[in-house]
Amino acid sequence: MMEMKKQSVHGEWSSRFAFILAATGSAVGLGNIWKFPYITGENGGGAFVLVYLMCVLVIGIPIMIAESMLGRHTRQSPIGAMQQLTKEANADVHWHYLGWMGVIAGLLILSYYSVIAGWATAYVFKAFFGSFSGGDARDIKELFDTFTGSPLTLMFWHTLFMGATMWIVAQGIKDGLERAVRFLMPGLFVLLVVLVGYAMTTGAYAQGLHFLFKPDFSKITGNAVLIAMGHAFFTLSLGMGAIMVYGAYLPKNVSIAQTSILIAAADSIVALLAGLAIFPIVFANHLEPSSGPGLIFQTLPIAFGNMTGGWLIGILFFVMLVFAALTSAISVIEPAVAWLVETDRFDRKTACIWSGLTVWLLGLGTVFSFNVWADIKVFDKTFFQLLDYLTANLMLPIGGFCIAIFSGWIMLQKHSEAELAFSNPLYYRLWQNLVRYVAPVGIFLVFLHVVGVL
Predict the structure, then answer these.
(1) Residue 94 contacts by C-beta under 8 Å, 6 or more apart in sequence?
(2) What single DSSP character describes residue 218?
């Protein structure tokens, strides 16, 4: 009876392909478009890619398998899942808080992610109306500073993006989340391929390849390994409940391990394609590659405004960013919505309204961080910087570490074996050893690195 209730409340993905699209969409976000290509070029190119892929294999995929398994076994939100799993294992009741931490981390992340995604949405229209045309570095910087300096402008685009996100989520699993990712993810991939094709015509494609892939093992330091490990963890959307709740909608006859490997592969391919699209354009226009918002909102618009076909390429690029942001946003709000529905006090649309309103209000802190609150700092950080540090550097690694420990040591082994259903017992032992020993040690080292101990 309980299983039937869970099924009726949440539903399922219609197929393994739908789950792969949704989970890949959760993993692929703004960070894939700029951070992975940049850190690859700065930390040894092809040598760094090899280190990163190894980290994905031994840390990212085992924890993704664990999160999906926890969700599918319980068919509940992260909060409900951890409550049920704790009871089944007769474990310490404090493990309940792992579910809460994931949901809260997702809400906090989306609150500032939505603001930045709002920038990308606005820049689609700026590109369409020729705002970058003929602009030099000073013009584009002034455009960016004027844009971020207006609280009402940022609030408008933040509201628009959150409205679109909550409208999609309110439609439900199949009519909302699944229908959206079936359109957005292929669209994102097509746009990426078109941009890579254009990059091949710039005359600087070889330079972009060199920047990204030429192996330089002299740059593979301990710090570079930690960067690769950290990015492998964060880029797969682990530790925030998104993969756990998506796993809750996964049909029983679908292999969790196989789909996790495919998702990790797709996420890495998108990141590499983004680098192949971006850096030839940057180099062809004699610009310096930089990280973060500077590359997306200040460096690339200079190129778009001064190159042949830049008007169309600029539009396509920022549309791609919006697609990537939407697929991530709907995944990080879903755990909170799912939990509110499970309380039986809210229908899905009402749960979306309350979750979205909470995120929208929190997002105002990030909006004001770039203007009226820019000089207000706590621990030498603006509100936006503090949220980013708290979530990415503290909550997510702690959440991932705890997921590894719980799934490897505390969850009843008969349940994990039944959910994973490996064809060969050796595969289960390999996963168990990775999630028990290798992944926790790796995450702990990353945690020490981000807090400045290493």
Answers:
(1) none
(2) G
**Helices and strands (H, E) in the chain, number of each type:** 23, 0
Q: Which two tokens stand for residue 369?
A: 């961080």
Mind listing the pLDDT tens digit for each residue in 398-424? 898 999 999 999 999 999 999 999 989
How confident is the model over 154-190, as pLDDT tens digits? Answer: 999 999 999 999 999 999 888 888 899 999 999 999 9
Return the DSSP state at 435.
I
**Alpha-helical runs (H) found in 214-309:** 222-235, 242-248, 256-284, 293, 300-306
**What's the number of CA atoms in the CB half-sphere (13 Å) around residue 238?**
35
pTM: 0.90
What is the Cα–Cα distance from 74 to 250, expressed in whole angstroms? 11
Residue 246 structure tokens: 């998506």
The pLDDT tens digits for 348-393 are 999 999 999 999 999 999 999 999 999 999 989 999 999 988 887 7
What is the token pair recorded at 446?
């990353």
- Cα-only R_g, the chain: 21
**Burial letters 302-323, b for 16+ CB under 10 A, else e:** bbbbebeebbebbbbbbbbbbb
Q: Which residues of 142-165 are buried (b: 16+ CB within 10 A; e: fewer)?
A: ebbeebbeeeebbbebbbebbebb
* CA dist list (Å): 148 to 71, 222, 367: 39, 37, 8
